[in-house]
């Protein structure tokens, strides 16, 4: 019994577990491996990151434009003596760096280079040091264009230091360009900040180099995605995106490589911001779905075994007791009876005891500890009692006047009266009478009267009498 209960329930648990695994795996695969959606998401991510990087450059230009209109900037660039100009320029640049540290725009990415340059793109002074004063940085086409046109700009400088530089012109009171204010932030730190604010994934920055490209920056503390493992398809896509300044994407192994142009930066360099995203949000949906479901199934099987064992014991123990008892009765132990307290099988044991008593002619004791009946007698017991009571009657023993009154009593009143007297007498002796209905009593009395009339040759009625611990019905022949 136990094995059957456990086996059936274990099979159910296994089937439900297998079905759950298949459904969960299918749902995970569908939700996490949609190639088209993931490719589009990778492209959208890199477009957003490129937009944020260019916006940071433009916001820096705007901040520098406000600082460039201050009188101290013009004064530093117009001093007569070169040494005085260098000292004043360094002081102004140090002051700007101090102010930038308190600006939310430069949080965690304060420029490491702030410099004032003259109209020929030579450094007049920079923050923190006099080293490099007089050095020309006119090789950067973007800065030269700004000094010529007055249009502010941002650029990726990677020849010496890899930085994102922003620059604005400084004008005199007549509007003539007297120099430029430059601020440059580390490129890797800038990419890291952009990544944290947008995709949260690795970002690389590439520029053309010969017939290919060079990686000039990657988000801080992240491994570059464009390493030797990137296949030919990805490299061809990047070359084509650089040449045509277009957004594109390609599947490379288990990654989607997406690229977006930086049209507002890197004048003349045609730089690209590159991002990589997994080709599936979950690399192995089977393992992810399998382990929790296997754990749940294992727990279910343990509970089934424990529950099946307890339930089997609850059922098999009383059955074994009944089987052993019946075997003992078959072997001659006729007085064997079952005293089984069990919610489900206790009733069966009681009926078996009743059956054994009936088959063996043993009267069952139905009284309690004080001798009172514990259950009501059946209708058969009532009929038997009347038969016995009838045999105890000999004659009426009544005076003629009482006999005449008995004969003259109307049948409804007569039958109702002796029924009430019979019930009252029985109850006086402490016997149960709930099972004796008036209809059954009257029917039985009428049958007894017919039998007695045939014997006596005349009409007979009955009178109720109490004799010790018995109630009897006495037949009274009528005149």
By CATH's scheme, which homologous superfamily of the largest domain applies?
A: PAS domain
Rounded Rg: 56 Å
Mean pLDDT across residues: 81
- Give the helix level as a range of percent: 40-55%
Q: What is the overall number of helices?
A: 13
**How many beta-strand runs?**
12
Helix and strand element order: HHHHEEHEEEHEEHEEEHHHHHHEE
Q: Key terms for this structure?
A:
about 475 residues; alpha+beta; Beta-Lactamase; 3 domains; 5-stranded antiparallel beta sheet; 13 helices; about 50% helix
Topology at a glance:
Blueprint: H1 2-32, H2 35-68, H3 71-78, H4 82-100, E1 113-117, E2 123-126, H5 141-149, E3 153-157, E4 163-171, E5 177-186, H6 187-197, E6 203-209, E7 212-218, H7 232-244, E8 248-252, E9 255-261, E10 272-278, H8 285-330, H9 346-360, H10 379-391, H11 400-408, H12 411-428, H13 438-456, E11 460-467, E12 470-477
Antiparallel strand pairs: 1-2, 1-5, 3-4, 4-5, 6-7, 6-10, 8-9, 9-10, 11-12
């Amino acid at each position: 019994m136990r094995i059957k209960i456990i086996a059936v329930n274990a099979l159910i648990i296994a089937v439900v577990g297998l079905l759950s695994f298949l459904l969960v795996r299918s749902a995970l695969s569908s939700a996490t491996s949609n190639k088209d959606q993931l490719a589009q998401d990778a492209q959208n991510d890199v477009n957003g990151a490129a937009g944020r990087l260019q916006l940071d450059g433009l916001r820096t230009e705007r901040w520098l434009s406000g600082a460039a209109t201050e009188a101290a900037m013009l004064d530093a660039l117009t001093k007569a003596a070169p040494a005085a100009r260098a000292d004043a320029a360094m002081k102004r640049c140090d002051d700007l760096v101090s102010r930038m540290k308190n600006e939310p725009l430069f949080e965690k990415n304060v420029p490491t280079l702030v410099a004032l340059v003259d109209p020929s793109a030579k450094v007049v002074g920079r923050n923190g040091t006099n080293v490099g004063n007089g050095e020309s940085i006119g090789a950067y086409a973007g800065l030269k264009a700004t000094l010529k046109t007055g249009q502010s700009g941002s650029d990726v400088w990677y020849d010496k230091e890899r930085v994102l530089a922003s620059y604005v012109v400084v004008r005199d009171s007549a509007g003539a360009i007297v120099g430029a204010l430059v601020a440059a932030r580390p490129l890797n730190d800038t990419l890291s900040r952009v990544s944290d604010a947008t995709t949260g994934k690795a970002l690389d920055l590439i520029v053309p180099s010969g017939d290919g490209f060079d990686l000039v920056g990657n988000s801080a503390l992240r491994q570059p995605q464009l390493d030797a493992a990137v296949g030919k398809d990805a490299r061809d896509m990047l070359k084509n995106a650089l040449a045509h300044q277009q957004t594109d994407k390609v599947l490379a192994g288990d990654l989607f490589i997406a690229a977006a142009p930086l049209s507002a930066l890197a004048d003349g360099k045609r730089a690209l911001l590159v991002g990589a995203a997994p080709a599936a949000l979950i690399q192995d949906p089977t393992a992810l779905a399998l382990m929790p479901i296997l754990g749940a199934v294992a727990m279910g099987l343990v509970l089934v075994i424990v529950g099946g064992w307890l339930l089997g014991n609850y059922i098999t123990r009383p059955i074994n007791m009944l089987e052993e008892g019946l075997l003992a009765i078959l072997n001659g132990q006729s007085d064997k009876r079952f005293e089984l307290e069990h919610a489900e099988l206790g009733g069966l044991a009681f009926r078996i005891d009743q059956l054994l008593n009936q088959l063996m002619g043993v009267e069952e004791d139905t009284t309690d500890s004080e001798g009172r009946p514990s259950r009501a007698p059946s209708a058969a017991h009532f009929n038997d009692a009347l038969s016995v009571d009838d045999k105890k009657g000999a004659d009426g023993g009544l005076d003629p006047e009482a006999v005449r009154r008995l004969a003259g009593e109307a049948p409804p009143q007569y039958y109702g009266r002796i029924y009430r007297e019979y019930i009252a007498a029985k109850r006086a002796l402490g016997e149960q009478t709930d099972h004796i209905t008036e209809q059954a009593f009257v029917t039985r009395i009428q049958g007894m009267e017919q039998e007695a009339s045939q014997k006596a040759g005349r009409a007979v009625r009955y009178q109720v009498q109490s004799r010790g611990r018995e109630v009897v019905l006495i037949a009274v022949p009528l005149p």
